[in-house]
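hiii so my PI (J.) wants the whole complex modelled not just the main chain, which honestly fair. so below is everything: two entries, each one labled with what it is. i double checked the lines twice but i was tired so who knows lol
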Amino acid sequence: MATVAAVIASTHHPFYYRASTSTGADRPPFADEWVAKIEAFRETLTRARPDVLVMVGSDHFHQLWLDNMPQFLVGKAPFYDANFYNEEREFGLPRMFVRGDEDLSAYLLRQGMDAGFDLAFSNELRIDHSITCPLITLRPEADLPIVPIYTNIFAPPLPQPKRFVELGRTIRQLVESWPSQARVAIIGTGHLSLELGGPRQFGPHGPDPEFDRKAVGWIASGDLGSALAEVSLDSLWLPGNATHGFMDFMLMMGVAGENVKADHVDSLDLFHTMEAYFTWYPEASV
Amino acid sequence: MSKYLLNKFLYTVDRDPDLVERYRTDPAGTVAWWEAERANVVLNLPGIERSTWLEFTGAEREALATHDYVKLFELGAHNFLTLTLFIAMFERDHDEPLGFQLEYARKLSHFSLPYPDIST
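here's the output for the full assembly
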């Protein structure tokens, strides 16, 4: 059976690529510290020697639209083109191209449906910065096949937080039962407190540092009990109007396991939103 | 209220570089053209399979035609779609980094929680 070589959760800050590649007067003062943290984070994936990446993110109204909106979707394609014109325009992100692992996609779809998740699928999916940002930070060579999994954290009505956690648990179980010798890293990105297009946007910190502090603590300690007790679809509006992306962190907590402490925890307080990085090594905890 | 159609306008204009420029320079004309020609096009269907019923309310048409992103927020247009398109059109007019984004936040500062409902 396949091995879960690493479980990784992080924010996906679309400005990292530009900040880390800029030079001279264009280089922001926080870039060097940010790059150092990302390089340490990258090493946590490299050390796990993955063969395949399962990548959880959310389409930001790029390919998925309100006339036909899936809640949870698994990409099943041999290749994925990546990033969109408006991400080049606003964030300076490059066009990318990655291989897919159709065998693992097919397995997750079939077994996921049989486990109670009526997953949507896509045979031609262009992936956006929720998946390319972690590729850029964690595996800039983009040389490993991926299985993209999209969640709807954006277009109400949304699934309940507990459903994200349950999907994360299911993904973990399915990868561990996949008949393959591959080492699989399961990577997912979400948001801490975040405001987009509202009065609290682009402040000197995330819109709700107290939420961020608590959320980082829940993730680092695997405290799903507190996260599920305190977070609801209604409550997530309070820390910022784009904070529902925290449910992708909750999904990753489901993957990592209840009360399992992360082996690598780091964060960086930036303008607009706090960055946070977590890695678990399931093999070490067995 | 046709929040879906507001979002469809923002979404389809934002993904087309020519339309972004056209909407920046001629908002009223672009909105009138779009409502007549594009509002009823289903995005993954050929033109002959158009919808027959989509139109803006007067307030929605006016908000789009005047680049009134504060009104769009009030009407429940999706905050991400509005922000992304308006950054594309107006960030270039500000010298300071994040100048437009911070002005945008200031202009929305009279809103408190709960914000207008963005459900469609």
